[in-house]
Amino acid sequence: MVGGMEDQSGWSAQRHCPDKERKVITVVYHHGGTLVTKDDGEMVYEMGEIAEQVYHDVNTLDVFELKDHHKVLGYENIEECWWLAPGRTLKTGLRALCNEDELAEMCFLAQVSGGRVHIYYQHGVSVPEEIDECPRLIEMPPSTKPVHTETPPPIVVDDDSDIELVEQGISPSKTQPVS
After folding, report:
1. Are strands 34-37 and 25-31 parallel, antiparallel or unpaired?
2. Partners of 99 in the β-ladder
3. What pLDDT tens digit does each residue of the chain (179 aa) get?
4. Within a 10 A sphere around the Cβ of 17, how many other Cβ atoms?
5. Residue 72 and residue 16: Cα distance in Å, rounded?
6. Residue 33 to residues 68, 83, 121, 134: CA-CA distances in angstroms?
7. Which position among 7, 11, 16, 161 has the lowest Cβ density within 10 Å, counted as fewest Cβ atoms?
C-alpha cells in the first residue's frame, strides 16, 4: 500500500498521498503484445490490446493487484510488468513494477501528470484463455456398469471375540471375510 515510504531523493508517498485524501488514477493496461525495438531504435508495443481501470483510492492499491491484473484480462502468466513514467518514451521510461516504492512513485507521477499511468505486460508463452460467463455442460454417455443398490446387512457384535473377528476382517455371524 502507498503511504509512509521515502526514497533517496527525500520524496515521501505520505506527503503526497495522505491517507485522509482519496486520489483517483486511471491505469491503462497494454496486454497481448510484445515490446519491440525497431530498426531506427524506437521501442513500440506491437500487436497489443488496451484496457483501462479506474482506481478511486491509490492508498488501497498494492503491487500484486496491478501485476496480477493480467489474470482478469484472461492470461495465465506474464514475464514482466512495466510501468511507463509519464512524458517518457518506451525506450527511456519503462520501469519494472516490482515493489511498493515503485508503486508509490508511479501513483505520485500519475497524479501530477493528468491522473493516468500506462502498464505494459510482457507475456510469456501463454495465450489468452476464453472465460465463459456460464460453463458449458458436457453430455456424459450412460454408464454400462450396473449400479449396486443393495445394502449389506449390518454386522452384529455380541462379545469381545466378535470384535477381534471384525478387526481381522471376518464377519462373526457368517465366519466369512467382511466386504
Report:
1. unpaired
2. none
3. 444 444 444 433 443 444 445 589 999 999 999 999 999 999 999 999 999 999 988 888 889 998 888 888 888 888 899 999 999 999 999 999 999 999 999 999 998 999 999 999 998 764 555 655 555 556 666 666 666 666 666 666 666 666 666 666 666 665 545 55
4. 23
5. 29
6. 17, 15, 8, 28
7. 161
Strand order in the sheet with 49-55: 49-55, 25-31, 116-123, 78-84, 94-96
Amino acid identity for residue 54 in this structure: V
Is there a contact between 90 and 43 (Cβ–Cβ < 8 Å)?
A: yes
d(CA 29, CA 15): 27
* Phi–psi pair at 81, nearest 5 degrees: -125, 120
Distances 156 to 82, 95, 117, 123 between C-alpha atoms, Å: 70, 74, 74, 65
- Number of residues that this document lists for the chain: 179
Q: Residue 46 and residue 138: Cα distance in Å, rounded?
A: 38
**Whole-angstrom Cα distance, residue 96 to residue 74?**
21
Residue 6 has φ and ψ, to the nearest 5°, of -135, 135
User: Closest by alpha carbon to 126, among 82, 49, 70?
Assistant: 70
